[in-house]
Specification:
Pathway: Carbohydrate metabolism; Entner-Doudoroff pathway
Helix content: 25-40%
Strand content: 5-15%
Catalytic activity: 6-phospho-D-gluconate = 2-dehydro-3-deoxy-6-phospho-D-gluconate + H2O
Largest sheet: 8 strands, mixed
Pfam families: ILV_EDD_C (PF24877), ILVD_EDD_N (PF00920)
Number of domains: 2
Family: Belongs to the IlvD/Edd family.
Number of strands: 16
Structural class: alpha/beta
GO cellular component, one term: cytosol
Number of helices: 22
Shape: globular
């Protein structure tokens, strides 16, 4: 048996020690819920009759009898978003599979699913991060009827999966299986898409040319194929043992995807408290599973949004995860994947090269993952060293992962990584605490020191660029973008603009208390800076022309300003009224007022922030 890497063991024990009381209270709560037995049997006749009134005769009889498992389906289906449109068919597949397994299934409820790709740079993006908490609340409403013995969660993108999991953990006594839809087939090469975007940013491509390129990239049902938050979510659910093995990156509307969906229903029916293999999600998501998720994030160069989401997920399970844990784990976990925006390949290429099955095997063999975890598939993460396939009769089978990568330009073994560490750094200094992802940043751009130019709006940066005001070495500071200011929108639209400046040979960096998402790339970006400017954080004391040093090597974020002078400055303020109304933003006032800092997951459930 491979020994666990000492840093992995040390970080896990540190998390376990600081979380002991909160975790114990959480487990006591879910154990008390489990101890009451299957709740459906305790419903009054009127309650129960309401619960099965719309069912067909066979399901109604099974629910009336009360001895068969009943599976709740919580779905993020809508048919505007490509990633979630395939879920339209899933309830039918799940219900049939449940009946064949002697169980029943009902759609317990729906949760909202918004797309950051549609709302980038728009007012709606300011609802995006808090939609995670709305999804968690919606999940709780769906499960509040006490009709279910396990739940299947249908979600893919950005805030949807974290919100579903936070909600699932509030019902941690119930088993939970996450059921993905898979990525769309590959479209236009990512290098070509990026080239057209940058040409458009420089005024060298028309809107028609840009739309044609984007439409050739985002072209079919399924998840966007770049490695942003959506596909990082799928990796996370698999490496944490909440997917079936091999489920993450199978394309939608294929026989294999349908077989995996049906098997998820059968497996959910098998792991309820009514059987002899009870696997409540609150027990599966422990300190080891959380560490495994962080390791997977580093090994794949995943989305920086998970610096928020994994922290919030952990907190929902009574576990305190800190940025310093990400930093320590990044120092020993090698980068094994190059997927756009960290490379030119997409997730279909990654999957074809060996994918998660190969990567999980490599990390297990190197002692970089906890192999002794419990998963929805059974004990031990070694169960995930397999690929899913179909036999000649169309039945689901699993075969061992390949012994080597089929494309070393996309996926590498631990012995030959793209880089020796995970490429994530925590930054600290007189400007606060933030993070930087350097897995795609050139080595000669990982330290940038230059005069800063300060903005309070994403659009102001583009305007200054078009006026030629940024054509120099510059640290672009975009402040008042944190959770309490305006909901912490992604600033993805800055990427092409800053990329053009860097390609012109300038030393450029971004500093912000906002987010950059999984689409951040080659420009160094100090993000999630906390305390945020709206709360009087140090960014509010910066002035145009101050020299700022972003140092990913030393892990520092500093204003090169006399300390006494800097501290004596009055904090700048911004008129944020226009960000607090319209497009539903007035409804989120409570969320903004109580949101915790980015270092604690930027959650409205963070009571310490109130």
């Amino acid at each position: 048996m491979v020994s666990l890497h000492p840093t992995i063991a040390e970080v896990t024990e540190r998390i376990r020690a600081r979380s002991r009381d909160a975790r114990a209270a959480y487990l006591a709560r879910i154990d008390a819920a489990a101890g009451q037995g299957p709740h459906r049997a305790t419903l009054s006749c009127g309650n129960l009759a309401h619960g099965f009134a719309a069912c067909g005769p066979a399901d109604k009889d099974a629910l009336r009898d009360g001895h068969a498992p009943n599976l709740g389906i919580v779905t993020a289906y809508n048919d505007m978003l490509s990633a979630h449109q395939p879920f339209e068919r899933f309830p039918f597949l799940i219900k049939n599979a449940a009946r064949n397994a002697g169980a029943t299934a009902q759609v317990a409820g729906g949760v909202p699913a918004m797309c950051d790709g549609v709302t980038q740079g728009r007012a709606g993006m300011e609802l995006s991060l808090f939609s995670r908490d709305v999804i968690a609340l919606s999940t709780a409403v769906a499960l509040s009827h006490d009709m279910f013995d396990a739940a299947l969660y249908l979600g893919v993108c950005d805030k949807i999966v974290p919100g579903l999991l936070i909600g699932a953990l509030s019902f941690g006594h119930l088993p939970a299986i996450f059921v993905p839809a898979g990525p769309m087939p590959s479209g236009i090469p990512n290098d070509e898409k990026s080239r057209v975007r940058q040409r458009y940013a420089e005024g060298k491509a028309t809107r028609e040319e840009l739309l044609e390129a984007e439409s050739a990239s985002y072209h079919a049902p399924g998840t966007c194929t770049f490695y942003g938050t959506a596909n990082s979510n799928q990796m996370l659910m698999e490496i944490m043992g909440l997917h079936l093995p091999g489920a993450s990156f199978v394309n939608p509307n294929t026989p294999l995807r349908d077989a995996l969906t049906a098997e998820a229903a059968r497996r959910a029916a098998a792991i309820t408290a009514l059987g002899d293999d009870y696997r409540p999600v609150g027990r599966l998501v422990d300190e080891r599973a959380i560490v495994n998720g962080v390791v997977g994030l580093h090994a794949t160069g995943g989305s920086t949004n998970h610096l928020l989401h994994i922290v919030a997920i952990a907190a929902a399970a009574g576990i305190e995860l800190r940025l310093e844990d990400f930093d320590a784990l990044s120092s020993v976990v090698p980068l094994l994947a190059r997927v756009y925006p960290n490379g030119s390949a997409d997730v279909n290429h990654f999957h074809a090269a060996g994918g998660l099955a190969f990567m999980i095997g490599e990390l297990l063999d190197a002692g970089l993952l906890h192999g002794d975890v419990e998963t929805v598939a059974g004990p031990g993460l070694a169960r995930y060293r397999v690929e899913a396939g179909l036999d000649e009769a169309g039945g689901l089978v699993h075969v061992p992962a390949p012994g080597r990568s089929a494309a070393l330009s996309v996926l590498r073994p631990v012995a030959e990584p793209f880089r020796a560490d995970g490429g994530l750094r925590v930054l600290r200094g007189n400007l606060g605490t933030g993070a930087i992802k350097v897995s795609a940043v050139p080595d000669d751009r990982q330290v940038v020191e230059a005069p800063c130019r300060i903005f309070s709006e994403q659009g102001e940066v583009k305007h200054a660029f078009e006026q030629g005001e940024l054509d120099r070495d510059v640290v672009v500071v975009v402040r008042f973008q944190g959770p309490q200011a305006n909901g912490m929108p992604e600033l993805h639209q800055l990427t092409p603009t800053l990329g053009v400046l860097q390609k012109r040979g300038h030393r450029v960096a971004l500093v912000t208390d906002g987010r950059m998402s999984g689409a951040s790339g080659q420009v160094p970006a100090a993000i999630h800076v906390s305390p945020e400017a709206a709360c009087g954080g140090p960014l509010a004391r910066l002035r145009d022309g101050d020299v700022v040093r972003v140092d990913a090597v030393a892990g520092t974020l500093e204003a090169v300003v006399d300390a006494a002078t800097f501290e004596a400055r009055e904090a700048a303020t911004a008129d944020l009224a226009s960000h607090h109304a319209g497009m539903g933003r007035e409804l989120f006032d409570l969320f903004r007022r109580v949101a915790g800092p980015a270092t604690r997951g930027a959650s409205a459930f963070d009571a310490s922030a109130a």
